[in-house]
Amino acid sequence: MSGAPNELLTELARITRELHEALDGVRVDPRLSELATHDIPDAREKLGWVLALTEQAAHRVINAVEEGLPVASALESGAVSEPAQVQAEGKRLHALLSDILMAQSFQDLSGQAIRRVIGVAGELERRLAELVARTGGMHRDDRAAGETAAAAVAERPASRLRDQDEVDALLSSMGF
């Protein structure tokens, strides 16, 4: 049982140190701040724009197909036989197919926006991985720092700390 408080303090010191280093890492890397305040909201806006374009195009395509199917059926079945009527229905079908083609032209623009969002997400992932690697590489040292901090706390419990200098010394022994 007497080892349990020391293990708890060691773990608490390790977790506190990891949090402290992670926060320092975020402050050190100005690009993370730029990603969070500018690039991610911009990427979210771009994805919203792509979604709106995709929805509009889908509606245009569905409407054109719904309007064109009866025309194609009439031409196929021979219900329209006069040359002028066939030509008029052919032009109508051509216009509907052109509308479908134009509705899909957004793909080039939305593809560019999606590539930009993928780039932002990739950079964010890389930066966060670097941050994790920076803090994750300290686990072995954290265990030793935690043991030192636990020993310092065991020698002088927090309730017996008399002034700020002793609190600072305790924090320093924990690696802060």
Feature tags:
6 helices, 176 residues, Helix Hairpins, mainly alpha
Beta-strand percentage? under 5%
N-to-C span = 28 Å
CATH superfamily: Helix hairpin bin
Q: What is the CATH architecture term?
A: Orthogonal Bundle
Shape: rod-shaped
Helix content class? over 70%
**Which topology does CATH recognise?**
Helix Hairpins
Rg estimate, integer Å: 33 Å
Our count of domains comes out at: 1
Structure description:
With 176 residues, the chain is mostly helical. It has a single domain (3-173), classed as Orthogonal Bundle (Helix Hairpins), CATH 1.10.287. The chain is built from six helices and no strands. It is rod-shaped, with a radius of gyration of 33 Å.
Short précis:
The chain is 87% helix and 0% strand. With 176 residues, the chain is mainly α.
Compile the SSE list and pairings.
Layout: H1 3-28, H2 30-77, H3 83-103, H4 106-136, H5 139-155, H6 164-173
Helix pairs in contact: 1-4, 1-5, 2-3, 2-4
